[in-house]
Amino acid sequence: MTDIDFAGRTALVTGAASGIGAACARFLADRGAARLILTDWDARGFDGLELACPFNTIVGDVGDPDHWSTVAEHLEGLDHAVLNAGIAGAGKPIAELDWARWKRTCSTNLDGVFLGLKHAMDAMRQSSGGSAVVTASVAAVRGIASVDYGATKAAVAHMARIAAREGGPDGIRVNAIAPGGVDTPIWDTTEGFRSFVESKMEGDRARAIEEFGKIGTPLGRFATADEIAGQIGFLLSDMASTITGAVLVSDGGFSI
Ligand code: NAI
């Protein structure tokens, strides 16, 4: 196959109600996917969702094994998975980070990806293989974020390598994407970004994203969710048929 084409394919996307996950759902649907299974804990984020293919939305917490028992009922014949749900880090130094907040980040960013991979790889093994992409971060390769975020993202990138080694004999490819800054609502959940918008940008969010995009980044800007979705789509697709266990850094050169 020489094109990015998901005709006849079934795909799972986590964190699908917003940002990169929602963009992945659109990318897959627009390129012929037969059926999408979309999950997120934000039910309202799915309101009014329209896609070019049939889809199921399942609301729940990716860090909860019981949620995955429900999702697993929909995974028969699964070809692709985007394990992408994530939350921002606490934005605190290690000495000030409390246990409950550490566990909260680990639950979504680490447990959620483990549970997703476990169920997706099981379903793919029972059909004829497939491919998965996990969303790490440039914080997996540079020590730049708070420890809960950076450590969980580094673990997710490494999980892709182990999953790739295990899945290869069953025809399952697993890769990670490690984005730098991407303009999505996740930024609005962080204290640091919100206070920058208010105190330095007079409430102009778009200008704040522009300014953040310039910091240490040779290309001088954030990515869009659609750009990252296209790169995830490439890794999922048959065009990437020999790529497995890779961590694709997509950060405008931030980590150089
Ligand atoms: P977003 O906030 O727009 O989307 C994340 C989605 O995940 C939301 O719909 C949220 O409700 C969902 N979610 C969070 N925790 C969940 C849970 N426990 N169970 C179910 N759903 C949950 O953010 P964005 O940027 O689209 O994030 C997607 C992934 O990309 C995350 O893993 C994030 O860490 C990663 N990432 C984002 C970057 C950025 O600059 N936006 C940079 C590098 C990585």
From TrEMBL:
<protein>
    <submittedName>
        <fullName>SDR family oxidoreductase</fullName>
    </submittedName>
</protein>
<dbReference type="GO" id="GO:0016491">
    <property type="term" value="F:oxidoreductase activity"/>
</dbReference>
<dbReference type="InterPro" id="IPR020904">
    <property type="entry name" value="Sc_DH/Rdtase_CS"/>
</dbReference>
<keyword id="KW-0520">NAD</keyword>
<feature type="domain" description="Ketoreductase">
    <location>
        <begin position="9"/>
        <end position="180"/>
    </location>
</feature>
<dbReference type="Pfam" id="PF13561">
    <property type="entry name" value="adh_short_C2"/>
</dbReference>
<keyword id="KW-0560">Oxidoreductase</keyword>
<dbReference type="InterPro" id="IPR057326">
    <property type="entry name" value="KR_dom"/>
</dbReference>
<dbReference type="InterPro" id="IPR002347">
    <property type="entry name" value="SDR_fam"/>
</dbReference>
<comment type="similarity">
    <text>Belongs to the short-chain dehydrogenases/reductases (SDR) family.</text>
</comment>
<dbReference type="InterPro" id="IPR036291">
    <property type="entry name" value="NAD(P)-bd_dom_sf"/>
</dbReference>
